[in-house]
Amino acid sequence: MPDAFHDSAARYPPPKCHPGTRKIYIDQIMDWALGKSEHKEPVLWIRGPFGVGKSAVAQSVAEALKPMNQLAATLFFALSNTDRDNPQRVFTSIIYQITTLCESFAHVIDARIRKDLSITTKSISTQFEELLVAPLKQIDTMKNGLEGRVVIIDGLDECRGTAVQCEIIRIITTSAQNRTTPFRWLITSRPEDAILRTMQSSALSSIHFAIELSVSRDIDHEILMFLIDEFTKVRESHGLPGPWPSDEALSLLVERGAGLWIYISAIVRFINDENSFGPEDQLRIVLGLTADMSNEVQPINPLAEMDCFYILTMKRIPPIFQTVARRMILLHSLDYLDLNGIALCLGLSLEQLRRCCTSIQSVAELRSLGLDSSELHFYHTSFIDFLYDPTRSRGFSVYGEFLIQYRRELLEWLHTVCSRTLNPSQFTFPASPVLPKFVDRGERYRCVLGTFWELCLVPNHPIDPQTATSISNLPFRKMLGLIPKTVLKWYIECDKLKHLDKNVGFCSLLNVLGAQRSDGVPT
């Protein structure tokens, strides 16, 4: 997973601690990494809730250790990026980085892979033993400068699969306990229940020690330092007269930040948004929001101040993009469609969708994948979490009534297309929306149909009775007859369709699919 390395272009610019901030934590970690600490445990676990700066601390430590030749490998997980959440590539990615440091180790690895090309596809425990533990036994780790180097694994909770997260911990700690690898292991994560239970088990208590990064007002002075430095850059780049912003404004922002780094970082990005009337106007909006909403959000909610900002972000989306933006975010969360597929489902051109993306660029960005391809990347999963929870996002949630209405709209569209289309080669669509000229109607039909099924399978959001009744009235045989044979075969064999019988209203569809399995798919 090269995109997950600490110095990868995909992560640029990476989150890291502002100069002079988080010094206590960084010094403590560096002492451990260099063997100067009273803590001699080979595993260090940094835990804390979202937005407190765990990744920034890990990045700063990695950059400090690199020139000292004390860094072995780094891996920064990201659940929102399929190239950075794959557990099957965790240890192979670490091993690859070690081969770049040690030629002797690289020769051993090369020979092992040549002998068994399938070794990288085996279980992660087998990979660890055969591609790390065994090869290390064949070289002098001290002579080759590997002894005591640090492996950093950041955001373990964002690795795909709870069970495998715990397995990774057990593999690493077992190796550390048995001294089968010469490394120190630095792991950061949210204190998720499964990880917490694994780390706090009696078997691991003597192998690791923990540092907790919490949301604390003790760092207000660091946040103020960060704001002053960042606003100085903004003021100079925009030619604003000083002093700006006022001391009162800075104090209010620090107060509203309440020790949550990600909130402050998000505000700075919002104020520095180029697609606005300028930083002064953006700052006025932020200050107005924090003043107006201070009594609207429950103070006991630890995410209250973050929610204020996210609500502002949603309110600032132009009316023309409001519904489209929320649907785009909902479809993106399904991990079913790429950006082109989302545009196709929404009946938009890619350029139109890109314009919509700019309306949420305070919390997300379009990242180029090369060859005119892009992906939507959210700066932090907390924004998605916010939109999932109707109690936090109020009328901006992508679930609840919004999801129900979108399902019904797609269902009505499918019903209209099925009733009007007589020939699969000539789809008859409703007059609205007007599709871009280049859109293939057959592809859009299949895209909408697949998306509708995906939306019906959103966990913890069952189909409502009205939608279920409408589904049962669909002309399923004709609906499936409009799909090419090869595509329908994929639908029939898709594992996700096994769960459809749990939803009232899909009985008719399953009966038709059952008939197709027996009689053969239509041509």
UniProtKB/TrEMBL annotation:
Keyword Repeat among UniProt keywords: yes
This protein's UniProt keywords: Repeat
Sequence ranges assigned to domain Nephrocystin 3-like N-terminal in this UniProt record: 29-190
Pfam families documented for this protein: NPHP3_N
Gene3D superfamilies in UniProt: P-loop containing nucleotide triphosphate hydrolases
Name the UniProt record assigns to this protein: Nephrocystin 3-like N-terminal domain-containing protein
